[in-house]
Amino acid sequence: MSESARRLAPHHSKRWKLLRAVNALGGLFPEDGFSLLTLDESALIDKARRQTGLDDFGDDLLFERLGILLHSFKHDAHLNFIGRICVYSDILRVLSNRLRLEEDRKRNPAIADEMIRRPLFITGLPRTGSTLLHALLAQDPASRAPRVWEVMHPSPPPETATSDSDPRISQADKELKWVDVLMPGFRTAHLLDARLPQECIAIMGHSFMSYVFESMYFVSSYRIWHEDRDKLPAYEFHREFLQHLQWRCPGSHWVLKAPSHLLALKALFQIYPDAGVVMTHRDPLKVLASCASFAEVLRGPFTECLDRDELGDEVARRWEKGARLGIQFRQDRASLQGRFLDVWYADLVKDPMAVVRGIYDHFEMVLTNEAERAMLRFLAANPQHKSGVHRYSLETYGLNRETERRRFRFYTDHYGIELE
Predict the structure, then answer these.
(1) Is-contact 251 139, C-beta < 8 A?
(2) Mean pLDDT of 23-52
(3) What radius of gyration, in Å, describes the C-alpha atoms of the chain?
(4) Alpha helix (H) ranges present in 53-110?
(5) Taking CA 221 as the corner, what is the angle to CA 100 and CA 57, rounded to the nearest 5 degrees?
(6) What is the mean pLDDT of residues 318-334?
(7) CA proximity to 304, closest of 40, 26, 69, 36
(8) End-to-end Cα, the chain, rounded Å
(9) Exposed (0-12), middle (13-18) or buried (19+): which is 165, by Cβ within 10 Å?
(10) pLDDT computed for residue 37 by the predictor
(11) β-strands 253-257, 340-344: how paired?
């Protein structure tokens, strides 16, 4: 392991001592002591079926993707005791959700008739203000965004009448408290609440073809497999999930978000040919440092091996590819240029409502007084750095400023991005 293989910052040391103690306790168990937390594919599938009393997952190819992911968890992720508990619990939850979602569609065939019209996607390099923009646009009462609680516990389909009082909201809130325990520093880097909108990667996690696993864990062989796969199956499932959420709780349009859409614009437009895309931009040197730091916050609690240099290299390569794919897609499809709108991070921080008005104007949407007031209330309640300042640097992750500046010059030149 290199000199950069270190844990999180000292100000989280007390909590990290507790986590290390729990992991050390888990390490006292022999290998067969983990039998209740097995990552065996058949055992997880059987348990999900027993828990739900259901049998049909609706997609036989799901098992192939699950098998590849579980293999990577076993051989690449270096999971510690806490990591193994979290992976086991999350895979079981996703499998159980799939069974229930399929049963819901059988019982309610009208779900499959739902039309997803003119969805609005936010994408771009990560750490460019897209989470704030997503939450802001979701304040419009007419809009529809997948909320955290709905993605965690989607069945039965949510209803408009109980969308703010559904008992799954408090259930999700209780579960999210573990984020503060397991991921010190998460809230300084990312908005989190059961009622806030959720990223699309969490939806696509139910297809086992998603960047959510790569964000949370060192699953290198899964990442290599996933990188060159046609993402169409993930977007087909994504549409089914939106149909499910929309059936009894509709809106005028969907507001959706994930940086990873940048890597799969072809599949996105195959499934959503009338989509609009807001692309956020920021100085890539700030992006890389912030992204690597946040990845450490996400992955640190779950692994016995965290190499910061390796993490920095992974982040730089991934988002160089994302930036190139985004530019190439737009150059190759001149007919879709009107479907894109570029937003700069500096403008969003300076005057978020001006950015919002520009989005509504570009996509010919109506920004009502009610929606604007709701957005202003959200901004007042969630000022920048509300939960602390997220501090980071390139050098911490073995990244050289001049090297990365040269690497991303094609991107900064193409979009005329102001350097920070």
Answers:
(1) no
(2) 75
(3) 21
(4) 61-75, 81-107
(5) 15
(6) 97
(7) 26
(8) 32
(9) exposed
(10) 84
(11) unpaired
Q: Is the peptide bond before 156 cis (omega within 30 degrees of 0)?
A: yes
Fold of 116-415: Rossmann fold (3.40.50)
The lowest-confidence range among 75-84, 108-117, 159-168 is 75-84
Helix (H, G, I), strand (E, B) or coil at 279: strand
CB 276 within 8 A of CB 120: yes
What are the φ/ψ torsions at residue 197 (nearest 5 degrees)?
A: -70, 150
Calpha distance 124→355 (Å, rounded): 15
Sheet holding 340-344, edge to edge: 143-144, 253-257, 120-124, 276-281, 340-344
Secondary structure of 175-189 in the HEC alphabet? Answer: HHHHHHHHCCCHHHH
Place 179 in a pLDDT band, splitting at 50, 70 and 90.
confident
Delimit the domains of the chain by residue range: 116-415
Q: By the 8 A CB rule, do 78 and 131 touch?
A: no
Q: Which residue has the higher pLDDT, 54 or 184?
A: 54
Q: In angstroms, rounded to a whole number, what is the distance separating the alpha carbons of residues 293 and 312?
A: 9
Please state, as a whole number, how many other Cβ atoms lie within 10 Å of the Cβ of residue 314. Answer: 19
DSSP class of 165: T
Instruction: Give the pLDDT score at 20.
Output: 61
Q: For position 180, what pLDDT does the model report?
A: 74
Give the helix/strand (H/E) hosting 27: none
Q: Which of 25, 66, 399 is nearest to 226 (CA)?
A: 66
> Got the DSSP string for 292-354?
HHHHHHHHGGGBS---HHHHHHHHHHHHHHHHHHHHHHHHH-GGGGGGEEEEEHHHHHH-HHH
The label of the residue with tokens 């890597």 reads 263
Q: Residue 259 gets which letter from DSSP?
A: G
| Model confidence band, residue 7 (pLDDT cutoffs 50, 70, 90) | very low
Give the count of beta carbons closer than 10 Å to the beta carbon of residue 404. 19
* Pairwise CA distance, residues 191 & 390, whole Å: 12
167-180 burial by CB neighbour count: b if 16+ within 10 A, else e? ebbeebeebbeebe
| Helical pair 41-52 and 81-107, crossing angle rounded to 10 deg | 50
